[in-house]
Amino acid sequence: MKLTFWGASQQVTGSMYLLELEDDYRILIDCGSDFESGDRRRALNDTPPPFPNALFPFEAPSINVVLLTHAHIDHSGNIPNLYRDGYEGQVLCTDSTFALTSILLKDAAMLNQKRINELNSSDSQRKRKKGRKKELPKDLYLEKQVRQALENFVPLAFNRRFRVSDNVIITFIPAGHLLGAAHIVVEVWENGQKKTIGFSGDVGRKGYPLLIDPATLPQVDFLVCETTYGNRLHEKGVSPDLALADVIKRTCVDIPGRLIIPSFSVGRTQALLYTLNKLYNNHQLPPIKVFADSPLAFESSRVYQRNVRMLNREAREFNEENESLFDFENLIYLESTDASRAISNHVEPCIIISSSGMVQGGRVEYHVAQNISNPYCTILLIGYCAEGTLGWRLLNGQTTLRIRGKDEQVLANIEKIDVFSGHGDKEDLLTFVQQQAPAELKKIFLVHGEKPSMDHFKNTLQSVGYENIEIPTKGQTFEL
Question: Domains in the chain, please, with CATH?
Fold first, then answer.
């Protein structure tokens, strides 16, 4: 049995791992979009892929089944391309993951269509008239490929062993992090011997708004573990409710001003809206308008509302008492682009929640551009911002930023809290690994993190007695 790491190797995005059995049965665990630059990918891995002209480093029809840990695009975003390239099998995941992935992939297809339209306009048309053939990026799938993929999703229940072949049984175990997110345990029988491999997916946090805590992973032989926050600790001792109430009071009441919160539409925004709903219900905030500026967030919130039974006890009880997780009197969802731009004229104190969370593209970029020079505005960053993104530049104190082709002076206040981060920190990851007995764990593979985070977490694991820890490079194969 062989395990090859085709994504999220010494970087955060692009999760994709290929498990090949001796009988040639092939399992792909996650199939995510890679958001790293081409230059950085080449720097991390000098070995050319076996299929240099293809999107995937393997033949898509050779895969027998895909297992999906959760809906986020860096884990699911390349699934439509897999079908476009000839894959004919199923995608197994939880029911909630299926619902959220449907929303995310359809949205990605719509954005891809916009990008294609832009590439085919003006200069591109003139070049084609001169006989030049315009080559489009090969990762741009459209609605047709999304429909084909979604028709082959098969939702499975948590904590139920499911046989995918004569020699393979899989189990989805709650991971927290996002509605429907799972750790996956793969049991394989070869030559009369059983081997088990655990895939962490993204490890959640205990006590996170709405979500259940990560469940215990049973003992496995091999463990693939994410390390996004392998060298960091989250803020301790402050609840999301108190942290958010404090920021709102200072930025919308004491001044009064405008609060802009860049937030990912799926998962993070639901945690924010739920927390705001609790604050308003408990009369901890004045009647300030809250604009949720993301159609994707609206659709995702509906999925959460339909799946209340899958949420934590506090959320279920709150929903039963208030008949809604998210809706409150001062909440306004903005669907159209015109409505989004119109709130620039809103003169009263308000809160604007919009995507994307790294302030890179999306409607929030417009709101930041309109308010970056407003000293009565606060931009609150609530999650990880990759190097080079607008969010990262804001956090690093740049006094002038180029946004949408214009140089803008940064006069707005920039703040950050991490109580809404859905990733477990170093302590959470250590707790996850320590569910495994060191003497019985044959090897640990660290993935889904920047190299410094992986190195730090490897040292942490070694200090508490774990050995045989690997940090795979992209394309590296291990015999299990």
Answer: 2-232+422-479 (3.60.15.10), 240-416 (3.40.50.10890)
